[in-house]
Structure formats: structure tokens, C-alpha cells
């Protein structure tokens, strides 16, 4: 098994070489001096390799933890490299579904039902009061307390949240929209989230 002392002492040679640890984890030392964590495994009858980063940015302990996580995924009958790529794709998709992006899509879809003045009011209110706080956050990660903070801050400045019907009469928001979960449900129901 490897130790930090062995890893620090590893020097480049004319050809790349491996320093092996346990359970097929190894450090690949390149001729240019790079020290790269790799893990060999078999999936679907083929030999594969998974990269875990460079030493010392990824320590020996962290490399072992990553290997153990990958082994657990492999034990479930899944290819760890593909599972990692899917997770990256999911994270990128979640990052693209920010509150501001979804709210602007919602506004664009819904504004035809409103008078132009009201549509402009709604967008201006979102830009002034909501987007600075919630705008850059992925919708799936917005906690309910943060939404309440935004609503309370808006109420404190003396302009309560109101919607107006086609005749200009104000009425409160529907009671069915009380939590971020309801917001997420509305987003997916109306097909506003990108996939």
C-alpha cells in the first residue's frame, strides 16, 4: 500500500510508471512529472480506467474514498464512469434551471393573459425584489425559508404582493402556491424547466 512519503518521493522517469495501492487504485507518474490517480476495473467484460484527479490536489485518502464510492456504484451493476458523466449532466441541467430563467419563461408564456401594464409590473417586481436574491439559484435547491424571507422583505416595504385580474381588482395569490415545492410542481407541469 502507498503512503504519502512514497507519493512525495516519486520522481519522473523516461516512461510513465504506476505506484499501486489496494483494490486496483494506482498513481500514474508521467515523464513530465504529473502524478495522476487512476483506478482499473472491469465492466461488461472490458477493462476500464477511471481518473480521480492529480496528486497532491487529491490526497491519498481522498483517492481511496473516490475508489470506494466507484466500487459501490460498480457493485450496483452500473459503470462508474457513465454514472459520473450522468451526475455531471444532471448538475449542469440543474444549474441552467435558475429561478430567474424559469420565471422569465413563465412570464413570457403567461403575459398574453394580462394587460400590458400588469405584465410590465410583474416583470419589474420580479427584477427589483426577487431576482437579486433568488434569481441565480437552481429552482430545485431553493429552500422555503429563503422564499419566505423574500416575501416578508417585500411586505415590510409597504407594498404587499398582489395580483390583479383583468378588471384591475387586486386579490391575494392563490393559496395553492405556498411553498417552493408548489413552485417546482408548477414549473414542471407547464414544461418550463429544460431537460
Q: Please describe the biggest sheet, giving its number of strands, its sense, and whether it closes into a barrel.
A: 4 strands, antiparallel
The largest beta-sheet arranges its strands as: 1-2-3-4
Determine the CATH superfamily of the largest domain.
Tyrosine recombinase, N-terminal domain
Structural class: alpha+beta
CATH architecture of the largest domain: Orthogonal Bundle
Please tally the β strands and state the result.
6
Straight-line N-to-C gap: 44 Å
Shape: elongated
Q: Compute the number of structural domains.
A: 2
Strand content is: 15-25%
Broad CATH class of the largest domain: Mainly Alpha
Approximate helicity band? 40-55%
CATH topology of the largest domain: DNA polymerase, domain 1
- Report the average pLDDT across residues: 83
Return the string of H and E elements: HEEEEHHHHHEEH
The low-confidence runs, each spanning 5 or more residues with pLDDT under 50, are 163-167, 169-178
Instruction: State the helix count.
Output: 7
Radius of gyration equals: 26 Å
Amino acid at each position: 500500500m502507498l503512503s504519502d512519503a512514497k507519493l512525495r518521493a516519486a520522481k519522473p522517469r523516461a516512461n510513465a510508471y504506476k505506484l499501486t495501492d489496494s483494490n486496483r487504485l494506482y498513481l500514474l507518474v508521467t515523464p513530465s512529472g504529473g502524478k495522476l490517480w487512476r483506478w482499473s476495473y472491469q465492466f461488461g467484460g472490458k477493462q476500464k480506467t477511471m481518473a480521480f484527479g492529480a496528486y497532491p490536489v487529491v490526497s491519498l485518502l481522498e483517492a481511496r474514498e473516490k475508489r470506494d464510492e466507484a466500487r459501490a456504484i460498480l457493485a450496483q451493476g452500473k459503470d462508474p464512469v457513465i454514472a459520473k458523466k450522468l451526475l455531471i449532466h444532471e448538475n449542469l441541467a440543474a444549474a441552467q434551471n435558475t429561478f430567474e430563467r424559469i420565471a422569465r419563461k413563465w412570464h413570457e408564456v403567461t403575459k398574453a393573459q394580462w394587460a400590458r401594464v400588469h405584465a410590465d409590473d410583474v416583470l419589474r417586481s420580479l427584477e427589483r425584489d426577487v431576482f437579486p436574491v433568488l434569481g441565480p439559484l437552481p429552482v430545485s435547491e431553493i429552500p422555503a425559508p429563503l422564499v419566505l424571507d423574500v416575501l416578508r422583505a417585500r411586505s415590510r416595504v409597504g407594498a404587499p404582493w398582489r395580483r390583479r385580474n383583468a378588471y384591475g381588482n387586486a386579490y391575494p395569490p392563490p393559496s395553492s402556491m405556498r411553498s417552493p415545492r408548489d413552485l417546482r410542481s408548477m414549473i414542471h407541469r407547464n414544461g418550463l424547466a429544460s431537460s
